[in-house]
Design brief:
This protein is an alpha+beta fold and about 325 residues long. The chain folds into two domains: about 160 residues, no CATH class; about 110 residues, no CATH class. The protein contains twelve helices and ten strands. A four-stranded antiparallel β-sheet has the order 1-2-7-4, with helices on both faces. It is globular. Catalyzes the conversion of epoxyqueuosine (oQ) to queuosine (Q), which is a hypermodified base found in the wobble positions of tRNA(Asp), tRNA(Asn), tRNA(His) and tRNA(Tyr). It is found in: Cytoplasm. One of its GO terms (molecular function) is 4 iron, 4 sulfur cluster binding.
Length: about 325
């Protein structure tokens, strides 16, 4: 069998296993140094757009070259896994809101288990394969690799957009030493002149098309920042207490979003019933029960209480007409 036919066969097996394990899309890119991304990443860091996320400045070389993460790696397999809910939690103007990705069980656990199964089954079919699985858990530039693998393009909000399902999905990777036929990258920007995500961002975090000042993002403030929230942001959070979906909700491509089929991503029943007052008075017992295996645990109860308190105070000031310009 010629090398080209063998690589085509491996690519077909990789994509078939991805479908069988519930991934919506799968693409393959040749592993190597992301030369075009190096100056962009350096500029982003020099502008301090990572805020207090010090880890973003670590492992610069590894972020740009997966062969430094996995010795002998030949391909990066990028995978998309849908999390768009069939039923949204309340997202009215006065509701406290949680980003949709955090409704159910922490995606790190759900997808990592699938990736372990993926590698096991791949080895069963093609023989010895060395590599590692990643899901937002290492210095891997997942959107860039997914773009190179033909899964979508990066929108003005910097998220990967897929023409068939928008952006409400997780991205995962297998970096392995198997030789397989790569896919053609997406080279066209299908956003065109649309700027809805930029226009809708309350904190003006999208500083230019494709560039997000992470230190100004609502998700950064409500999840990553451990300090007290800045008073200058008091009227800008639109009641998001964990994460934010604004730039995705307004994106026209998300009209193609379809409900996921993953039971693990369903919200805890009690979360669906929680009122605004319940969030304001949440106890450790309730937090531990409702968010036992949730990404929301990342903020801990103290962080969630801080966020809710900040929103409550902001709403009170808006109501009283005391918000300063």
């Amino acid at each position: 069998m010629s090398a080209m036919i063998q690589e085509d066969k491996h690519a077909a097996i990789i994509k078939r296993l991805a479908r069988e394990l519930g991934f919506d899309f799968c693409g393959i890119a040749k592993a190597g140094f992301l030369e075009e991304e190096a100056p962009r990443l350096e500029a982003w860091l020099n502008n301090h757009y990572h805020g207090k996320m010090a880890y973003m400045a670590n492992h610069f070389d590894k972020r740009l070259d997966p062969t430094k993460l996995v010795e002998g790696a030949t391909i990066v397999v990028s995978l998309i896994y849908n999390y768009f809910p069939e039923k949204k939690l309340p997202e009215g103007e006065k509701d406290y809101k949680i980003a949709k990705y955090a409704y159910g069980k922490d995606y790190h656990f759900v997808i990592k288990d699938k990736l372990k199964e993926y590698l096991y089954r791949l080895k069963e079919e093609v023989g010895d394969v060395e590599g590692r699985a990643f899901v937002d858990s290492a210095p891997v530039m997942e959107r860039q690799w997914a773009e190179k693998a033909g899964l979508g393009w990066r929108g003005k909000n910097s998220l990967l957009l897929n023409r068939n399902m928008g952006s409400f999905f997780f991205i995962a990777e297998l970096i392995i030493d198997l030789k397989a036929t790569p896919d053609d990258p997406v080279t066209k920007d299908y956003c065109g002149s649309c700027t809805r995500c930029m226009d809708a961002c309350p904190t003006d975090a999208i500083v230019q098309p494709g560039v997000v000042d992470g230190s100004s993002c609502i998700s950064y403030f409500t999840i990553e920042l451990k300090d007290e929230l800045p008073s200058s942001m008091k009227d800008k959070f639109a009641n998001w207490m964990f994460g934010c979906d604004i730039c995705q909700d307004v994106c026209p491509w998300n009209r193609f979003s379809r409900p996921h089929q993953e039971p693990e991503f369903l919200p805890h029943p009690e979360m669906e019933e929680m009122s605004k007052r319940d969030w304001e008075e949440i106890t450790q017992e309730t937090f531990s029960k409702v968010f036992q295996k949730s990404a929301v645990k990342r903020t801990k109860l103290t962080g969630l209480r801080r966020n809710v308190r900040f929103l409550k105070e902001s709403n009170k000031e808006i109501t009283n007409g005391q918000v300063e310009d």
